[in-house]
Amino acid sequence: MGHRLSKIYTRTGDDGTTGLGDGSRVPKTHGRIEAYGTVDEANSAIGVILAVPNLPPAVTEALTQIQHELFDLGGELAVPGYRAIQDTHIDQLEQCLDRFNEPLPMLKEFILPGGGPAAAACHMARAITRRAERCAWALAQSEAVAPQVTRYLNRLSDLLFVIARVLARHENGQEVLWKRK
Fold it and tell me: Is pLDDT at 1 greater than 60 in this prediction?
């Protein structure tokens, strides 16, 4: 593969537009840009989790795979008509979620974000992923978005919640339970 990004700046976006993967140009405020930009933000937030030392290997493996899939999902949003996320991706997220969730104690209360540095970062990634899902749904009101995109983001936010619980225990932190006043 050759050099794909030999020049980082192009000046073509100085007019407030950006290019989609199909060559068309749209305003930088377009719903498609908001959707894949928020997916990129979620991917970056997962990178923050992965930067925390001494994560459980299974968490590192799962989150690294998810980063690749989020890059593909962003590509799907950036190229109208392109499909990258399949039902198998969602099935894999569900299987991963079940594996991580099985040994955890049942929840009886809501959990506040926190529990340790990696757990807190995971809660942040979860919240950003929820926003990415909302952006994808907003885009779907005006343009075609494959249902796998929104389902993937929904399942991913659930998985990140469970991984945050796993990380809180790994970091010897405590889950902070919400207390009704």
Answer: no
